[in-house]
């Protein structure tokens, strides 16, 4: 694997301009003072109650996501290019989803294979021919970005269903401003605090035509046992909207109402943090106690907006990801600003042969996997694990893609033995309303806290950092 690009010190050890002020501040700050503030940050997070549930761990159901107090810094010029690429990609994703559920021009053109759509469990035939308000399917996108050199950002994954993590982005900034006012005073950092206002404005803008002039928005959560429940309650509070569970809603005459102390109140926009399978037991899983019976009939009647729309999962499938550069070109007639990571489709015989011959050097992922589960990191795997994966690939090649083991960029991070480089990725959040696409300046930087580890997922022991975009 190539040497990782150090975002602070570059490839040649020369301090990069965006980090010059941070470097001076670190030189002036005693290590014990930094450690004291790190401990204070952890205490604040515990008091606030920011936890993340980890399924399958017998010893604990919830834990604190580790927070690193050294910010990741991105220059304004770098961000401008990244922002343009994120907007371009999100625009193409929305056009792709409308086409898949309507004319299917892209399938007739042979750009994307039919079977990849129609045999995909994330494809929802119920959405065929169904219009959605303002043709917006993905209102909130979380697009995972990695960096391997000074000049390029790459898209690692498109999260178009119910992307999480924005609450940690907001809380990280609040903690940093509280604990490091002196460091903030040395930089012009673009604000992220406007995100809740922009999200609410975005959601209201896509309300159905039958909504009142002041559309009512609610946030639908699976409940307190969901891994991201903290975020659901946090966002509902910041947005100033009701946090509801399925049992709080009722459908009457193809309209959705929530139960309140003053009687039933119509809901126009539902920011749902509940997967398609569970939202309506009359349409999808009949055993779901989390959804709202009849919700899809109200949706089909055009009386409620669901954000994100039903059926968006087809766009963030990892096999579909490999076609995204072609999708951007097909709908926009433009070259993608943000490149994909090179990807081998194991469903194709030539690609499968290459992957099987090079398993020890590659990262292999399940096309429907998430959270860092169900994947093989070849260079870090045992021979037995590699052979077990080889058998899986031979049995079900269409269920996997493979990518090179990237030397993800590193950022300085507090460790038990002092500052050290650790690998990072970035999840910016893109909001698409009826007229505008907005990208919050920053996003959630996830950091692999173990030395040499490339797995940044919170569920796999990763932490987070505040992301500073310099307002130049």
Automatic annotation (TrEMBL):
Superkingdom of the source species: Bacteria
Location of the Circularly permuted ATP-grasp type domain: 71-448
Residues of the signal peptide: none
Annotated InterPro entries: ATP-dep_Glu-Cys_Ligase-2, CP_ATPgrasp_2, UCP005522
Gene3D superfamilies linked: 3.30.1490.270, 3.40.50.11290
PANTHER family assigned: BLR5612 PROTEIN, SLL1039 PROTEIN
Protein name per the record: Circularly permuted type 2 ATP-grasp protein
Organism this protein belongs to: Tardiphaga alba
